[in-house]
Amino acid sequence: MVTYMKERKRGIRIKSRVILTVLGLILALASILVGVIELQHNFLPVYSILELIGIITAIYIINKRDNPSYKIAWIVFILTLPVFGLVVYMMWGGQRTFPHLKKRMMACCDKYEKYLEQDPAIPRLLQYENSPQTRQASYLCNESGFPVYKDTSVEYLSPGDKFLKRLVQELLKAEKYIYLEYFIIADGKMWDEIFKVLSQKAKDGIEVKVMFDDFGSIKRQYRDFVSRMEESGIEVSIFCPIKPSLNIVMNNRNHRKIIVIDGNIAFTGGINIADEYINQFERFGYWMDCAVMVKGKAVDSFVVMFCSMWEYTTGKSIDIKDKLISLPVQKESYVIPYCDSPMDTKSTAEGIYLQILNTAHKYVDIATPYLILDDKMKNAIILAAKSGVRIRIITPFIPDKKYVHPVTQYYYSELLEAGVKIYEYTPGFIHSKLFISDDSSATAGTVNMDYRSFFFHFECGVWFTDEDTIKPMKSHFEELLSQSQQIKQSDWEKRGAWIKFKQWILHIFSPLM
Questions:
Q1: Residue 197 in contact with residue 206, Cβ under 8 Å?
Q2: For 400, which DSSP code?
Q3: What is the arrangement of strands in the sheet containing 177-182, beginning at the earlier edge strand?
Q4: SS3 letters across 298-332
Q5: Neighbours of 205 (CB within 10 A)
Q6: Which residues of 150-159 are buried (b: 16+ CB within 10 A; e: fewer)?
Q7: What percent of the chain has pLDDT over 90?
């Protein structure tokens, strides 16, 4: 009974923090709206000037070098609610983040990325082979700044329970350090199993650092979550703590999933640390997800990613020189870990997806929980399909966000007309993020096919040409297809008028979701 009451109090505290945050945001928006109404009624000249500024801002947005869909959403919002829309845009939509934060992130990245060295023989081998994969790798190296590696293996892990078993096996072998960076870390069976190993390793004198995103985890942890880790000797960092405000920084979340063990093994993928990811409880039917384990030289890049983010978040540096201790694994494939950031004007994650589509000869297989496409991505998929490339896309049948799923489905019509084959995973929710092409290249990681992943979140992934890994990925994709229902164009066009209207309206504001 005492334990039950303790758990209940913890749950109440979590809900209280969430409620206070939501109320703070609502009050902030309400105060802006009240202020706008007050201006309109009592200070009409000022209101008229702000309306004019709103029109000028809309013209400014049109001429910005930004994603067209994103621009249209804000223009509609500002012109529909001139002053209110203008104020919200100035606070939340005018830029990806603040200049001083960009400067700080750039300094952290420069500090650690200088320790990554490109073996000059590997790019020469790529150029000599002159394959479609050469273009993909060249783009990714140039855009991300991370080297291309050989002497690295990649192991595909799906579903979540298989990943957890493999992860715990490797964590138990740790001798020097464990770095863990996640969007969601939730109290539950999955975390308990991992935390048991982490706490024991910390007590044994092994360096353990854990970083998680506050937005992703805010509803999923008991109040003493951090103190429990710190008492066990684990260093903890919370990325961008949630505050009840319209602060633009709140829009940029750390969606990455990275685990580095002793500098020689790394994990990444879609799987967060929460019980639904290992199907210990059901949220949206069966939860299908995947991860990859990277072993060898390419792990150096994941070490750099973590160290950069750790210093950016905590202000504390890591002596990286004795952390880059990866051992080569005899493999002939090419591997490039990469990350993407809202702190620059690049779109590395979207770019590698586009490169795979543009260089494919036979097929591209895609799994994604969200299919919210900008014009570049939509046109690339359509162009590839019309060029004879077989494009197959799996999305969820049971969505996790009911307001987002209609936007995913909005794009079905155009894609089906172009010959793209679309399937919905009927057992539940598919959270995997996969691109597989021509049995020769693939990428897996944290990147959804939506605006948040492409432009607002910190993301990461790994691109590779390892046929030993691509083969089981392709087999698993075929297995997923057998459990999915194909969306036929003739049936899709018969959907009701209300569904079409809802998709049209939500699509306009999809870049803001």
A1: no
A2: S
A3: 152-157, 291-296, 265-269, 258-261, 177-182, 207-213, 235-239
A4: CHHHHHHHHHHHHHHHHCCCCCHHHCCCCCCCCCC
A5: 8
A6: bbbbbbbbbb
A7: 60
Residue with tokens 């005018």: 94
For residues 141 and 298, is the Cβ–Cβ distance under 8 A?
A: no
**Both tokens of residue 460?**
């990461």
Helix count (H) and strand count (E) of the chain?
20, 17
**What backbone phi and psi angles, to 5 degrees, belong to 435?**
-130, 120
pTM of structure? 0.86
Inter-axis angle of helices 44-63 and 2-42, to 10 degrees?
110
Give the three-class secondary structure for 150.
coil
- Confidence tier at 38 by pLDDT (50, 70, 90): low
246 pLDDT higher than 60:
no
Do 431 and 288 meet the contact criterion of CB atoms below 8 Å apart? yes
| DSSP annotation of 341 | -
**Are the C-beta atoms of 419 and 393 separated by less than 8 Å?**
no
* DSSP code per residue over 450-510: SHIIIIISBEEEEEE--HHHHHHHHHHHHHHHHTEEE--HHHHTTS-HHHHHHHHHHHHTG
Q: How far apart are CA 384 and CA 241, in angstroms?
A: 42
Strands 152-157 and 291-296, sheet pairing: antiparallel
Kindly report, residue by residue over 158-209, the tens digit of the pLDDT.
Answer: 999 999 999 999 999 999 999 999 999 999 999 999 999 999 999 999 999 9
DSSP 8-state code for residue 511: G
CA of 135: how far to CAs of 124, 204, 207, in Å?
13, 46, 39
